[in-house]
Design goal:
The chain has 8 helices and no strands. It is mainly α. The relative contact order is 0.13.
Length: 163
């Protein structure tokens, strides 16, 4: 029986994998990001079934695997700072009232903007795509508003929260 070739995933799907891991981390606080990364990449938890149960399938490739690991570590390692920043932006909401998927998406986008120098248009576009997939109805508008405010203040935030 011939072994099925895994398809190499795009950066967009790599972000989805990072979202899955960070969302799982928020739901299971006894886990660490290192444990999740080890389980995911060393135990080869990728499924061969196309989009089985919503999971990302296929081979990430070296560059995207490194991207997922870096993004997950940045979010997990800077969670307090990311949340401190994000609490300032939803003026009509308390940050802890925002749904877990939306919080995870905002943390990821902010980490990319602050620490990875992802162009803001890409970070926002990817966040909106994730919100359409995983967030509540109309959460993409909410996320767009918060990220727009962050982009306006990005230079000052980088100075204050630089690694």
């Amino acid at each position: 029986m011939a072994e099925r070739r895994k398809s190499q995933l795009s950066r967009r799907k790599a972000r989805r994998k990072a979202f899955e891991l960070l969302f799982e981390l928020e739901q299971h606080t006894i886990l660490t990001i290192e444990e999740l990364l080890r389980r995911t990449f060393e135990e080869d938890l990728f499924t061969e079934e196309d989009e089985a149960e919503g999971m990302i399938v296929g081979d990430l490739g070296a560059a995207n695997k490194e991207f997922v690991m870096q993004l997950c570590r940045l979010v997990a390692g800077n969670l307090k700072s990311l949340d401190e920043i994000l609490q300032k932006y939803p003026l009509e909401w308390k940050f802890d009232r925002i749904g877990a998927p939306e919080r995870t998406i905002l943390r990821m986008s902010l980490a990319e903007l602050l620490y990875m120098d992802t162009p803001f248009k890409i970070a926002i576009n990817e966040a909106l795509d994730l919100a359409k997939l995983y967030g509540e109805k109309d959460s993409n508008r909410f996320i767009n508003g918060i990220l727009g405010g962050i982009v306006r203040d990005l230079d000052a935030l980088k100075k204050q929260y630089a690694l």
